[in-house]
Design goal:
Layout (H helix, E strand, L loop, with lengths): L7 E3 L18 E3 L5 E2 L4 H11 L1 E4 L5 H17 L19 E3 L19 H7 L6 E11 L30 E7 L9 E4 L9 H8 L6 E3 L6 E5 L4 E4 L7 E10 L3 E3 L7 E3 L13 H4 L4 H6 L5 H8 L4 H5 L7
Parallel strand pairs: 3-4
Antiparallel strand pairs: 1-2, 4-10, 5-6, 6-12, 7-10, 7-12, 8-9, 8-11, 13-14
Helix pairs in contact: 1-3
The structure holds fe (ii) ion.
């Protein structure tokens, strides 16, 4: 590894994994400098950083009680509901190569409802998505890279995107936003969420590498348990491997943008951005949230996919849910 005085550690291609089953993980221009983290109340500064780079780090978003509660939830459900975590006898395809996931904990655990609009991060989420009335819930899950998991197979990628992102003006609000909360400390030896700042404006990582030039960085984000990272799903990112021994626990929540939004697109007379499409074709919202008595909560949980529509039409029939690939009962 070549040291550099520009805050970048260069990993030559030949020193990276020669195993085709293990991800090459980007161009190997790893930042040695951690970006600033913002207090949850520093809305203006945190928003400005996000607007420039497509992600932002908020510190101390979860307190000790919440961290204990969520870690205990993970311990308990791994013990009592191993199939939901992919720990049962039949490992499911979506559990391979990315550690453990409990995909839809909200279905059966209303004790998690208060976390769906967490007081520490939600004000910034709302600012980024264009206002509280535009924020929609998409997905909520817990993940764990167990200890001694070895090298991973995740390379840089973006999540869901809308094609107009490369041309629309203004760019923000983005279409989806993901919040990753670290539930365990993430230091230099742990798997780390890793971003390429500013890459959300590019169609490919190679385009970002060619155009950003010396500004191109792969930035592993480290921090104590309770750290929250918000990122635009169009941003290139990965889970950068640690030493292969240390583990990591995270809570992931995705938000979408609702409503119709006037915008502009070159060559188009009148352009209006539609509400973001649904993020997945399988994610379900339980009756208590989808049909909540409060219209504001119903609006928040209103981005239904066709599986959800069928489940609602069935009267939330458990058999319909059980037929779904992640409908663990
Ligand atoms: Fe991703």
């Amino acid at each position: 590894m070549a040291p550099s005085n520009t805050g970048v550690r260069l990993i030559p291609q030949e020193n990276r994994s020669g195993d085709p089953a293990i991800a090459a993980q980007g161009f190997g221009r790893i930042s040695e400098i951690q970006p600033p983290s913002f207090a949850p109340g520093a809305l203006d500064a945190a928003y400005d950083w996000f607007a420039r780079y497509g992600y932002v780090v908020l510190r101390a978003c979860l307190d000790k009680r919440e961290l204990a509660e969520l870690n205990a939830f993970m311990d308990r459900t791994q013990r009592e509901r191993p199939d939901a975590w992919g720990l049962g006898e039949r490992r499911r395809p979506h559990h391979r190569n990315q550690g453990l996931i409990f995909s839809q904990p909200l279905l059966d655990h209303p004790e998690l409802d208060p976390y769906t609009r967490h007081a520490a991060s939600f004000p910034l989420v709302a600012r980024i998505l264009g206002g509280v009335e535009r924020v929609r819930f998409s997905e909520f899950n817990f993940r764990e890279t167990p200890e001694h998991a070895g090298a991973g197979t995740m390379n840089f990628h973006h999540d869901a995107v809308v094609a107009d992102r490369l041309l629309r003006d203004p760019y923000l609000p983005c279409d989806w936003l993901c919040a990753i909360h670290y539930l365990t400390d993430v230091d230099a030896d742990c798997p780390a969420f890793c971003v390429v700042p500013g890459s959300n404006r590019f169609a490919t990582l190679a385009d970002a590498f060619a155009t950003l030039g010396d500004d191109y960085r792969e930035v592993p984000l480290r921090g104590p348990a309770g750290t929250c990272i918000l990122y635009d799903t169009a941003l290139f990112h990965t889970r950068l491997d640690g030493d292969g021994r240390r583990g990591r626990r995270t809570w992931h929540q995705y938000y979408a943008r609702g409503g119709w939004l006037p915008s502009s697109l070159p060559g188009t007379k009148r352009y209006v951005r539609a509400p973001s499409p649904v993020l997945t074709d399988w994610n379900l919202f339980p009756e208590r949230l989808a049909l909540h008595a409060d219209p504001a909560v119903r609006l928040y949980f209103s981005h239904w996919n066709t599986a959800q529509c069928e489940w609602v039409a069935s009267g939330f029939d458990p058999a319909v849910r059980a037929a779904m690939p992640r409908g663990y009962q």
